[in-house]
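Appendix B. Chain record.
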Amino acid sequence: DGKWVAFVGYPDGALWRCKLDGTERLRLTPPTLRVYLPRWSPDGTQLAFRAESASLPVKIYTVSADGSGLKQLFSDGRNEADPTWSADGKKIAFGRTALPYESQPKAIHIYDFESGQTSTLPRSEGLFSPRWSPDGRYIAAMSLDSQRLMLFDWERKTWQELARVNASYPSWSSD
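Structure tokens predicted for this chain:
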């Protein structure tokens, strides 16, 4: 609704939200989490983000905008990053971090809130940092070496290379 802003405090790394005039400021995460890349759900009721703590790998969490319902989405021992909401708010796409000591394959994964199931986006091996388009038709992602910007088309179920360039942090325009 454009009436709230979420931000990560520095140096504490906590997730906060407040109204545009600075009122109703509320800390949404405990001191044990250091938050990165918060993303509002399309309906504005919750946020998804990645966070690290001293005792866990980097994980994806969700929390309601009122500060309730903090939830770690996955309990496995793998690192996760870059949550991005589907246009209808029913799914989150995410990638695995590109840490050199992790030997498990990296790919783009889709978590479905209704079923609680996670699937792998077809032919997304070696990609990370997904960003869902506002209309829900596409997912942009980068190759692990950050040398290719890729685009997945949900209607055609195909990937195409948008650019061969050293890139990071793709972002969609609102239209």
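Further analysis of this model is presented in Appendix C.
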